[in-house]
Amino acid sequence: MSQQKSPKKNNLKNAAMLSGIAFEMGAIIFLAVKGGKWLDTHYESEKNIFTVIATLLGVAISIWVVLQQLKRIKY
User: Fold this and answer.
1) What is the 3-state secondary structure (H, E, C) of 17-61?
2) Cα angle, residue 23 at apex, residues 57 and 47 outer, rounded to 5°
3) Do 39 and 45 contact (CB within 8 A), yes or no?
4) CA distances from 51 to 10, 54, 67, 71, 72 (A)
5) Phi, psi (5° rounding) for residue 28?
6) Which of 3, 49, 58, 70 has the fewest Cβ atoms within 10 angstroms?
7) Do the Cβ atoms of 52 and 36 come closer than 8 Å?
8) Nearest to 39 by CA among 59, 66, 58, 65
9) Cβ–Cβ < 8 Å for 25, 66
10) Confidence band (pLDDT; 50, 70, 90) for 1?
11) Against a cut of 0.85, is the pTM above it?
């Protein structure tokens, strides 16, 4: 006979993965914004173009990471 994980353990693992996703998204976007601000001050940009580009890139990367992790969740 094959042994299956109990649904309770599987749900707990999924909940832990989902709560970790929020922290990962926040960290990725935060670091992207910080990097964009640093580039703007380093190159003395008046229009904050690096901050905008880095923020959009950070959001896109965080969404991609979320989608990759959601594929791994077993129901």
Assistant:
1) HHHHHHHHHHHHHHHHHHHHHHHHHHCCCCCCHHHHHHHHHHHHH
2) 30
3) yes
4) 40, 5, 24, 30, 32
5) -65, -45
6) 3
7) yes
8) 58
9) yes
10) very low
11) no
pLDDT given for residue 18 in this prediction: 83
Cα of 11 vs its chain's centroid, Å: 21
Cβ density class 4-42: b for 16+ within 10 Å, e for less: eeeeeeeeeeeeeeeeebeeebeebbeebbebbeebbee
Tens-digit pLDDT profile for residues 26-60: 999 999 999 999 999 999 999 999 999 999 999 99
Q: Which residue has the tokens 């299956």?
A: 4
Q: Which pLDDT does position 36 carry in this prediction?
A: 97
Residue pair 11/36 in contact (Cβ under 8 Å)? The answer is no
